Amino acid sequence: MVDPQFSESKNLLVENPLDSGGLYPDPGQLIVKDKVNLKILKKLVGQSILSVNQFDKELVLEICKLAALLEATEIAESHPLNGKIVITAFFEASTRTRLSFESAVLRLNGKIITIPDARQTGVAKGESLADIGEMFNAYGDLVVMRHTETDAVQKIMKNLRLPLINAGNGSGEHPTQALADWFAILKWKPELKKDKVKPENRIHLGILGTPGSMRAVNSFLRMSLLFKPGIRKISIISEMADPLGPELQETLEKSDLDFVITNDINVVLSDMDVIYMNSIAFLGDSYKTLDSRFKLDAGSNLKEDAVVLHPLARLDELDPALDGTHHNLYFTQAHGAVFIRQALFISVLNRFDRLPKKDVPLSN
Description:
The chain is of the alpha/beta class. Helices cover 27% and strands 16% of the residues. The chain has helices at residues 38-41, 57-72, 96-107, 129-136, 152-157, 175-188, 215-224, 246-254, 330-348, and strands at 36-37, 85-90, 111-115, 142-147, 164-169, 203-208, 231-237, 259-262, 274-276, 280-283, 286-289, 307-309, 362-363. Strand 7 (231-237), helix 8 and strand 8 form a beta-alpha-beta unit.
């Protein structure tokens, strides 16, 4: 556990808190001499979290700073979510996302009503998402939903009056995954949070997948554009000739960032600082596992200080031989998701006054 006083240190790494492989950057590096700004976070009170497009860089940084405080400070005894009920409605299979949301609630002393399988709901009998949303209004205080259909968010929001957190909608978006991704990156390289980043500190960002049809990489790419000053190049590695789609292609072009599209990771691998992996590609109307042009192992030509991210679960595209190396940022990425989701619950449900003020430096 990191010292809650966050003494300034040049060492970005702390002792691995979970005794597993990889890098565990010090979360205190995000908040050295920099209090969490509640005025900015209060913009989220009562709001739904549906898309990365809702966020600006300032808000992302404050969420990550609050998550860093939560990671570094024991606050369980303050019971920030006491009396609140969160509905976790997972109409699509999930391990990490559902459990990390539920862990976040329980560690804050909230209560959970869960739907772990669509077959256990009225959907199996033909009930509409709009009607389910109406029922949810009486059952809890906030809904977390994952669904196989991209338009599921719009359908349930027709009648839902509670805040909704989108935990993945079909091939659409996964905004809280992008927050967890950038939380890991910013802990690893905190200078990227600045508006002016020295050329030698800017990163070449590699994204493996098809952002136009894969929600995790879609949201990650969109959020990455908020950190434009720290990015010197983006490489998108995909089997598809057009992995972005017209809207995302236009967004990336308007950013004026240098970007390339290739179908072989080995063409750009040796120059990349961050490699964002994924396990499957959505091609046409089906999922397809990746061939050798998209895989990393102990023999891959990685830069000495390059890091790898992966939203998990993985197949054989990411060799476990990398787990014990300093390239592994994907374990801290997964573990940090709990604190990101805690930060969102506290913000959306306006439970800032439940945080222990003597341990948590906040600015109103």
